[in-house]
Amino acid sequence: MPVSIDLDPDTLTFAQVVDVARHDAKVALSETTLARVNKYREAIDALASAEKPVYGVSTGFGALAQRHIPAELRTQLQKSLIRSHAAGVGDPVEREVVRALMLLRARTLATGRAGVRAEVLQTYVDLLNAGITPVVHEYGSLGCSGDLAPLSACALVVMGEGVATGPDGVAGPADEVLAAAGITPVTLAEKEGLALVNGTDGMLGMLIMALSDLENLLTAVDVSAAMSIEGLFGTDAVFAPELHYALRPHDGQSAAAANMLTSLKESGITASHRDSTHLVQDAYSMRCAPQVNGAARDAVGFATQVAERELRAAIDNPVVLTNGMVSSNGNFHGAPLAHALDFLAIVAADVASMSERRTDRMMDVTRNQNLTPFLADDAGVDSGLMIAHYTQAAMVSEAKRNASPASVDSIPSSAMQEDHVSMGWSAARKLRKVVDNLASVVGIEFYAASRACDMREAAPAPVTGAVISAIRETVPGPGPDRFLSPELAETIAKVKDGSLVAAAESVTPLQHTVTEAAGTWLPEGGSPAVNDPKFTALGNLDAAAEASGTDAATTHPDGTGQNSAGQGEAN
């Protein structure tokens, strides 16, 4: 893990997001980034001092945007916005989720397009580096107008209010936690309240971490499927390359088939029955594993593309343009992320379902090719893995329930101004549960398949053999019934931390979908984090006001006085 990550909006990668979120990597800001932020802030300062009101700079928010707020009340305006929006409830979300959210909001601030002062950005980075984590609650985002309550909980801590945990994990009043770290709370100025809450950062952070986890899990399930096929006396012939890309050119399917074929290469178990006539064709859960695992890989590829593009975005409303104008927009809508998050939950649940079907075959004496019932040592006296499979089935069932899409369940809010929302935060929260369940399901398949292979007379393949050896370092092989929960937990932990994939790749490399290059994509023509030599802080104030909809804030065409920029909070 790197000692420090340079928070460059154009170069931040998936791996760096994960390093900061999960491994407490430090974050640094370059002088170039700070200078860019200050340059864009000049536009906000110029508009704040203008006579004509500009939405989000010198007006109220949402339905109150028609009111021109005098300079002496604007600090209170920012405080009121953050306090009122920090309205989440439920259990605190995981520390890694909050750290990813804060890093990604800081990344958008670092583009300059949010128009904050450099000290605001620096404070976000200081909190991350000090190991201070705002307490963010489970519920409070509809995935539109940004992840409002979660981001507001973080902004509240930046102000020295709310609740945060220190590096010791103990929660306390934010002002005390900040003081202990030597961090001075920020008094927010014009536009900064909106800039801190109008982002898709929670959704994006959870998507990036899920993609990291799924890359490991989909590689692991290629190997666990191969090990199950080996233990069940299945054939490796269906994984031959000429049966995949040449006939059905899906990249994910080809990668999964190649991994399975590699995992079974030189298997003594497979060779021992190669010329037998005991089966004409294997069951779908064995024969079609590359098609299902591969389709999941292709879904991960699609979601990676979505996340890469969002990682180069500057999400805020209003946003500072390169000519100094401040313009309203709808980029805070989380639909692109919500759809990808829902898609991943569906394919992860499907992969888990197929994994469970292979485990089920190993339990059934009529289908497991002369293994004992439930892989028991003394069937009848011993129950073997009967209830381990029950546990696996329960988690698959839960994964299926959580695969129901959240993004089709929009609930209008904010007096019908926000009349369609993405529910992307909810999609991300349930995806985390599905991914966690998939890891457990695959772990139980490994546990059962390693026992099945141990019960065969011939030797496993070098790859599967290396994985079995890694499992056997902490988990015994076949024998009389014993307390299974700790052994299952040990195996699942080795799946989650990548140990079993590493054991397989200690023999030979496997194919991957999400690589270290994930997050290095840049859009044609450059990203929002530009240092435009034509940039002018003053801009055209009339054009800026018009683009922000503030003419309508003063006098709406129908005489109502409503703001065309919208009634919704922080919108």
Concise description?
By secondary structure, this protein is mostly helical. The protein is built from 21 helices and nine strands.
Describe the protein's architecture and organization:
The protein has helices at 14-23, 31-48, 74-85, 95-110, 118-130, 148-158, 174-180, 192-197, 201-231, 251-264, 268-272, 284-287, 289-310, 335-363, 386-402, 424-454, 462-472, 485-496, 499-505, 541-547, 550-554, and strands spanning 4-6, 26-28, 89-92, 133-134, 137-139, 163-165, 171-173, 319-320, 326-327. The chain is mainly alpha-helical and 571 residues long. It folds into 2 domains: 4-198, Fumarase/aspartase (N-terminal domain) (Fumarase C, Chain B, domain 1); 205-314 and 341-507, Up-down Bundle (Fumarase C, Chain A, domain 2), CATH 1.20.200. A 3-stranded antiparallel sheet has the order 4-6-7. Helix 1 packs across helix 4, helix 10 packs across helix 13 (289-310) and helix 16 packs across helix 18 (485-496). The radius of gyration is 27 Å and the shape is elongated. The two termini are 38 Å apart. Belongs to the PAL/histidase family. Pathway: Amino-acid degradation; L-histidine degradation into L-glutamate; N-formimidoyl-L-glutamate from L-histidine: step 1/3. Keywords: Histidine metabolism, Lyase.
- Terminal Cα span: 38 Å
Oligomer: single chain
The major pleated sheet works out as: 3 strands, antiparallel
Per CATH, what is the topology of the largest domain?
Answer: Fumarase C, Chain A, domain 2
CATH homology superfamily name of the largest domain: Fumarase/aspartase (Central domain)
Shape: elongated
- CATH class type of the largest domain: Mainly Alpha
The overall pLDDT, averaged over residues, is 90
Q: Report helical residue fraction.
A: 40-55%
User: In DSSP terms, counting alpha (H) and pi (I) runs of 4 or more, how many helices?
Assistant: 21
Give, in order, the helices and strands.
EHEHHEHHEEHEEHHHHHHHEEHHHHHHHH
Query: What share of residues are in beta strands?
Result: under 5%
GO biological process, one term: L-histidine catabolic process to glutamate and formamide
Catalytic activity: L-histidine = trans-urocanate + NH4(+)
Protein name: Histidine ammonia-lyase
Region (Disordered): 542-571
